[in-house]
Amino acid sequence: MSRAPLRAVIFDIGRVLVKVDVARATAGLSQGVSLGPEELWRVLQSDPRWNDWQEGRISPPDWHLHVVRRIGSPLSFNEFRDAWNRALDPEPLQSDDLFVTLARSKRLALLSNTDPLHIAHLEATQSFFRHFPARARIYSCSVAASKPSPVIFQAALRAVQTRAEEAVFIDDILEYVEAARSLGLAGIHYQSPAQLRSELRFLDPSLEL
């Protein structure tokens, strides 16, 4: 069965639009503590409050206090924030013409599991955000839900005012792509800029990417 015409393109951010190097962040966060960078990251992701942090139920100052007390870190809030944001590479993964071309005929949205510190840093440093209206920037910490929950995908579809069958979701994590597909969206498991453009052209041959 053929799909409905493509009307909306929904992007993950990390490792799709922005390079992520967790080791750069944990190297800074682990200064002055007994945990190594890799062990520190495992501790953070398994922390009982990790989902609260990702889904906006804990503020940045409270997350800072929680983490430094847990790992015995001497970092101030500003030092912690700067180390946390070192995970995000300033060099974007996609060239600007991709968004310019897509925006001529598609509604664009962002859909990311992320936190307030990363959002503030990214929106202040990455130029591609200008192609995404504020209402179409769907962050887990803003909607109190994270991928693969249907709640966050539904929030993105409402933002672009599009039916699932008319949208595609792009993510580097296959589990999240499959979650989108289970809701009726097309899904692209991101591998490279060239592969992304090829799959978008397959969904809509009229795109000159």
Folded structure, characterized:
- The protein is an alpha/beta fold and 209 residues long.
- It folds into 2 domains: 8-19 and 91-203, Rossmann fold; 22-86, Putative phosphatase, domain 2 (DNA polymerase, domain 1, Orthogonal Bundle).
- It has helices at 22-29, 37-45, 50-54, 60-71, 77-85, 96-103, 116-125, 140-143, 150-160, 174-182, 193-203; strands at 8-11, 18-20, 88-92, 107-112, 137-139, 167-171, 186-189.
- The protein has a 5-stranded parallel sheet, with helices on both faces.
- Strand 4, helix 7 (116-125) and strand 5 form a beta-alpha-beta unit.
- Helix 1 (22-29) crosses helix 2 (37-45) and helix 1 runs antiparallel to helix 5 (77-85).
- The chain starts with 7 loop residues before the first strand and ends in a 6-residue tail after the last helix.
- The model has no long low-confidence stretch (mean pLDDT 96).
CATH architecture of the largest domain: 3-Layer(aba) Sandwich
CATH superfamily of the largest domain: HAD superfamily/HAD-like
Helicity range: 40-55%
Write down the overall mean pLDDT.
96
Placed side by side, the strands forming the largest sheet appear as 5-4-1-6-7
Alpha carbon gyration radius: 18 Å
Count of alpha/pi helices: 11
Which blocks of ≥5 consecutive residues have pLDDT under 50? none
Terminal Cα separation, in Å?
Answer: 25 Å
Number of domains as seen in the coordinates: 2
Q: Helix- and strand-based class? A: alpha/beta
Largest sheet report: 5 strands, parallel
